[in-house]
Amino acid sequence: MTLPIITADERLAETRGVKAAIFGASGAGKTTLLRTLQASTTLFFDLEAGDLAVDGLAIDTIRPRTWTECRDFAVFIGGANPALRDDQPYSRAHFDAVCEKFGDPAALDRYDTIFVDSITVAGRLCFQWCKGQPEAHSDKTGKPDVRGAYGLHGREMIGWLTHLQHTRAKNVIFVGILDEKLDDFNRKQFVPQIEGSKTGLELPGIVDEVLTLTSLPDAQGELRRVFVCQTQNPWGYPAKDRSGRLEMLEPPDLGRLIDKIHQPLPLDARPLVIDPPSIPAPAAAPQSDPQT
User: Fold this and answer.
1) Which domain of life is it from (predicted)?
2) CATH label of the domain that carries residue 20
């Protein structure tokens, strides 16, 4: 057996999908983004039953109603994780059981994009399931243990998102609601609307892109829908661009955005390759008077 090294040429030739989380206020037009994707190669993971925004769009859809169904679809889409035991979700045993129920996973080969609408509802389904598990009840009294439920919820959501993130060849787009809140100092901040805090905190480290869909005035003062794509933006919106290819603001067209991310980028063009800042020399310590 030889060392399983993937050569540079092999890695560069691999098909790699974009993993993105898109947040926006209710009514911002998140579901409508489906119209900017190629319908014949997109699978609509409809958790909200809110497809009126894409009424008339010929697109294939799945509609999970429970957290168990969400996990089943995730392992069917992403395949088995060989690192897991057979009694764990997303394991080989879980994948085999789901294939027996749904059939050959090759049926998904026609789709290059999975559009999950929304991660907010997925979090609610997950928390509802978690509240019924033994871990969410006290061993001594049998009463509900909210901390146990939230701990399980965080692990379940991160496991689900991570498994879909490892679906290397497909684009996976998560959309969710963005809340506007005030912190303890009465400063405005934007927070993804996801049950519990763990998922919202760790999600930016899981996906490649975090985008905020919002409306901003153009040069004539007219409001235009845009993607905010970079972390250091003047509005404080959650955003991240791991690809290094996106501008601060991009048109709200997912198809064009994915094509732009897949464009070649020279190594010397990456925006984070910068000269280190100059550090001033420390001030000399005052000398004490030997007579004192």
Assistant:
1) Bacteria
2) 3.40.50
